[in-house]
């Protein structure tokens, strides 16, 4: 009998991103189930990343637990986010979450939006 292979993790966090998310969630004045990550249409390049605190896990969310943080991925965004690493960068004049996404084909000059193509790999299936 064939053994089912483990399902790949859709997204991962850098140590810096996990640490910052834990810091922010610890300061919340209400219970938080996780950080919901997605994409939306808009901006000059076509799409932008979204992040919000989630009070509950939706049955349709893709749940990723990495480095002690629960990330909830919007089901409409999963094919755009497969293989993405979420990082947190602190520079001289700004600190921000950064998405290192292999599905990103370009970005606008202001850095607010990106062009994404859905992953060619079906989530949970081996690449062809």
Helix/strand layout:
Blueprint: E1 11-13, H1 15-26, E2 34-41, E3 47-54, E4 62-66, E5 69-73, H2 78-81, E6 84-90, E7 95-100, E8 104-107, E9 114-116
Parallel strand pairs: 1-6, 2-5
Antiparallel strand pairs: 2-3, 4-5, 6-7, 8-9
Please tag this protein with its features.
128 residues, mainly beta, Hypothetical Protein Aq_1857, Chain: A, four-stranded mixed β-sheet, three-stranded mixed β-sheet, 2 helices, globular, disordered C terminus
Please provide a written account of the structure:
- This protein is mostly beta strands.
- It has one domain: Hypothetical Protein Aq_1857, Chain: A, CATH 2.60.300.12.
- 12% of the residues lie in helices and 38% in strands.
- It has a 4-stranded mixed sheet. Strands 1-6-7 form a 3-stranded mixed sheet. A two-stranded antiparallel ribbon has the order 8-9.
- The longest helix is centred in the first third of the chain and has 12 residues, at 15-26.
Beta strand %: 35-45%
Q: Biggest sheet: strands, sense, closure?
A: 4 strands, mixed
> Helical proportion?
10-25%
| Mean pLDDT metric | 83
* SSE order, one letter for each helix or strand: EHEEEEHEEEE
Put simply, the count of helices is 2
Q: What Rg, in angstroms, do the CA atoms define?
A: 15 Å
Number of domains in the coordinates?
1
Alpha-beta content class: mainly beta
Number of strands: 9
* Uncertain stretches of 5 or more adjacent residues: 124-128
| CATH C-level category | Mainly Beta
Full CATH superfamily name: HesB-like domain
The shape, in one word, is: globular
Supply the CATH architecture. Answer: Sandwich
* Order of strands in the sheet with most strands: 3-2-5-4
CATH topology term: Hypothetical Protein Aq_1857, Chain: A
